[in-house]
Every structure is written in structure tokens, then in C-alpha cells.
Amino acid sequence: MPRKEVVLALVGLALIGGGVFWWRSGGVEQDKIEIIDSVDIETGKIVVDVGGAVVKPGMYEAKIGSRIGEVLGLAGGITNDADTKWIDMYLNRAEVVKDGQKVYIPFVNDQASSLPSTSLGTSKSQRININEASLAELEGLPGVGPVTAKKIIDGRPYGRIEELMEKKIVGQKVWDQIKESVSVW
Prior knowledge:
Elements: H1 2-24, E1 45-52, E2 58-63, H2 68-74, H3 84-90, E3 102-105, E4 128-129, H4 135-139, H5 146-154, H6 163-166, H7 172-178, E5 182-183
Parallel strand pairs: 1-3, 4-5
Antiparallel strand pairs: 1-2
């Protein structure tokens, strides 16, 4: 009888081993969920839309961590009719671009009303330009006192009004109060 028990034990072990192998190798085929990010981590690439006064406007693949200056180089650089005064005052060429970002370089003859706005609802003429406003003008904004107004001035220049939040110059409550009243144009 010990021989029969040994054979049964070996058969049992073989079945258990086969079951474990089947289970670890996938067993029953299940649908697999694949999450696709817009940033291709494997290639380290993002896509940026460059327009306005550049040699070759269009969509460009750039490396993750690329800067606005590098992306402008991919587009052939700026043209002779680019508004270089605006670029010098408001464009931060060292800013890191994000996937899906739009970089627009205005022409010298662009009208202020035709330039893209960073927020909706209030016309440019009713907004305070955070790149040019005086301390007193900034203090006139809801929730902005002398300390915050000075922090806004010290953080200049801004390429987008959202930088007030990104650079932690204003908190969410103040941001919600002023976002429709400020611009960078």
C-alpha cells in the first residue's frame, strides 16, 4: 500500500503544479485595460502648437522638459515682423512647455483685441495688466493688499495669468476673485 500512496501523492503534486503553472501563465484570458497618457513616457516626447510670427507655424514634437525658446527654434525661430517688444516684456523663453500647450508669438501689427486672451468674460480694456499695473492698481483688485500686490510685481514678467497660482503668489480664494479682472496683454 505505501506504493499506492506514493503514486497518489505524486499525481496530486503534478496536478497542483500544473494548476499553479496555468494560473501564473494567465489561465483564463481576460480583457486587459491599458491606460494611454498623452505624454509618451517611453519616447519622452510631448506635442506643442506654435503659431503667430514664427517661420514655420505648426505642431511640433519636443522632449519632455523642453523650454519655449527651444520650441521656437523647432518652428524656425521668430519672423522679422514679430512683436519683439512684446516678446522681451512678456515671453519667458525659459518656461518649460507642457503637452498640448499653445505658444503664440504676436505680429507687430496685431491689435490688442485680436490677441488671444488668457480668460473669458471681461474685455481687455477692463482688465488690469499684471505685467504693467502699479502697486495701487493691483491693490484695487478684490482680496489683494499691499503685500500680495508687491509679490505680483516681484514675480514679473508673466506669460499667462495662471502663473499667479502656479508661482503661489495668490491663493485659490483670491484667484477666484481676480481671474476675470486681470490680463498679461
